[in-house]
Structures are given as C-alpha cells and as structure tokens.
Amino acid sequence: MKKVFYGIAAIALSFLGANLLVSDRAQAIEEGLYWGGGSRYIRIVKRATSTGEAERICYHGFSPNGSTIVSLELEIPRYQTGMDYEVYILQAPKKSNLNNLAILQYASSPNKITFGKLVGRSVREGFVYEKDGIAATDVTPELQECLNSQLPYFQQISSGRDRR
Known about the structure:
Elements: H1 2-20, E1 32-35, E2 41-47, E3 56-63, E4 66-76, H2 78-81, E5 85-90, E6 101-106, E7 112-119, E8 122-131, H3 141-148, E9 154-157
Antiparallel strand pairs: 1-2, 1-8, 2-3, 3-4, 4-5, 4-9, 5-6, 6-7, 7-8
C-alpha cells in the first residue's frame, strides 16, 4: 500500500514540477489568422528577438469597418493563472476605444483565442476566434512597423477592406 501511495505522490510531484518550469516558448500565444465569425479576423504575428529580449508580438484586427494594428504585452503569464491560460493586453492609448481589451488563450486550445475586456485576471464579454486554415503570410507596412518598433505601437485605419 505504501508503494502505491509513494508512486502516486511521485507522479503528482513530477507533474507539478513540470508545470512550474515553464519556458518562454510554452507561454507564447499562437501565431496565425483567427476568424471571429462573419468578416471579423484577428492576425497574430511575432518577431523573434535575440536572447534576453522579449519576443515582439503584434495584433492586426480587421473587418470591412476598418483595421487596427497594435502591439501586445503579456499581462498574465500562464504559470500565474493556475488554469493553464495566458492573457495579453493591447498596448493601445488610454483614450482609444481599445482601452482595457485583451486576448486570452488556453494551452489546451491553441487554435482558439478569446478577445474581450480584461476583468480581473480573465477576459470577459468577448468573442471566441478560431484559427483559420488559411496561412496569412503577407505583412502590411503597418504591421511591419509594429514588429520593428521597440515602443508600444498603435494605428487604426478607417477602411480595412484592402489591408488584409
């Protein structure tokens, strides 16, 4: 009976230890094009940086109503949530209509993101976007500016129909 108990305890401790040792790669939001229904899309792109620097992550949301390009910042790392998710905030100016918006992604669902309001330590009142099968490889000039910038980046374009 003691052997069984010690075996279970060893498995539990190894699982717990593996979850506490989280690498940067395991905490990264999945890059790609996400579809939110109708003609709403979010594109997440990354620029790898040299060691010691944080990875640059940019958001490009677009629909027929317009387009927004903004840098993302990791607000709540996966290891702090206890539920295996992470939250990124949009680095938009306080006076913009994007203030307090965030993206949540569960490790168990890397093909989905939730985009909505940051409330406490989670995202509420949002929409679920699913990863689109189409790989978007083109980078607009504005998105490239966001990736190259070292500062928070924000730009809105009134008509995004030709800016995908």
